[in-house]
Design a protein that fits this description.
Elements: H1 2-19, E1 33-42, H2 46-51, H3 59-62, E2 69-72, E3 83-86, E4 91-99, E5 104-111, E6 115-127, E7 130-141, H4 147-158, H5 160-179
Antiparallel strand pairs: 1-7, 2-3, 3-4, 4-5, 5-6, 6-7
Length: 180
Amino acid sequence: MKWKVTLALNVILAVTAYGQGSSAATAPTPLLHVRGGFEITVHAPLKSATALFGAHGERTWAGSDWDPHFLWPLPEQDNEGAVFTVGEDRTPWVMTAFDLEKGHVQYVFFAGRALATVLDIHLASLGPAETKVTVAYEWTALKPEANDHIQHMAEAHRQMGKHWETAINGMLQKEKNKSE
């Protein structure tokens, strides 16, 4: 599946670059591509932790800022191929991978005609009740005006790891306390 995502992004980049126009007198402005990410530890077994990173599963810990509206499947559920929108601008997202057994979740989304994003999450068991989560983002500008925005997003997302870890483990602790 990763090769399909890479191919799709390369085609989009080629079309976008072509659409910028070029002449012998002026070189096109390079489009920025930035990779970033973080690692966290979740206090849950692999399958349970993986489920928390599905679009629907994330609602349990992300708060009101995360409210995906599923277009497919209905009724909504996390699975490979799910399509949903988020935010006021209704940005479309596609869940390109969702594998509870292998601990892999991946999304591709486009913010207007400005940028493309691949969000790739890999999880690995650290024991019966702990999971290491590696979150990787790749942002690609689709037009030069998005370059600065991507730089700011990359910096902001580097700081998100601690927030995610606190929110997820806090929710898990509350659930544990309710069941005791």
